[in-house]
């Protein structure tokens, strides 16, 4: 079973067939990370309830937390107005970032005037 | 003045020289939209405090709200652990989405099991 064609028709993929997915903790609103999905990763995410991405560096599907235990249980998925970005609201187990930080945006804050 | 070289050295751009920017309302945590920045857009954002993007369709810089009035005043900017995503926390004036919705993710919710 591939991705529901009614959803696939609305997706606008980049030239590699990917769409960025913004991942947010469902209750606190923390933005945890950004990852990439193709149709199959979105299909697996929607049907399993477990966040699944396409790793651009490893060129492989990646079930978040499969090796680290830091899974993301999906509570809510939406496409944006253009169909070119996905928002996932998840229950994050442990740290979202591979560095051990809660989010991937904790370490490198830039100053604003 | 270009982007601070200490920041530019940490940025990992796609093959078009762009980095995705996740835009979040600073107090409620709502994810408002995703847009794209090159070095100059990030430089303008950091030095003016006003969210400025690169429009891939129009191939032009785009100061959010310049025509609509729906500006984004920047409160916080961070890079992610890989330097390939930017998180902006902003004070959004009015609707973030060009459709008039508060966020670009309000209209197209997908069901999760």
From TrEMBL, chains A, B:
Keywords attached to this entry: Amino-acid biosynthesis, Cytoplasm, Histidine biosynthesis, Hydrolase, Magnesium, Metal-binding, Zinc
Entries under Gene3D superfamilies matching the protein: Phosphoribosyl-AMP cyclohydrolase
Keyword Cell cycle in annotation: no
Record note on cofactor: Binds 1 Mg(2+) ion per subunit. Binds 1 zinc ion per subunit.
GO-annotated biological processes: L-histidine biosynthetic process
Record-annotated Phosphoribosyl-AMP cyclohydrolase domain positions: 33-105
Cofactor(s) listed: Mg(2+); Zn(2+)
EC number, UniProt record: 3.5.4.19
Task of the protein: Catalyzes the hydrolysis of the adenine ring of phosphoribosyl-AMP.
NCBIfam families: PRK00051.1
Protein name: Phosphoribosyl-AMP cyclohydrolase
Species in which this protein is naturally found: Sphaerisporangium krabiense
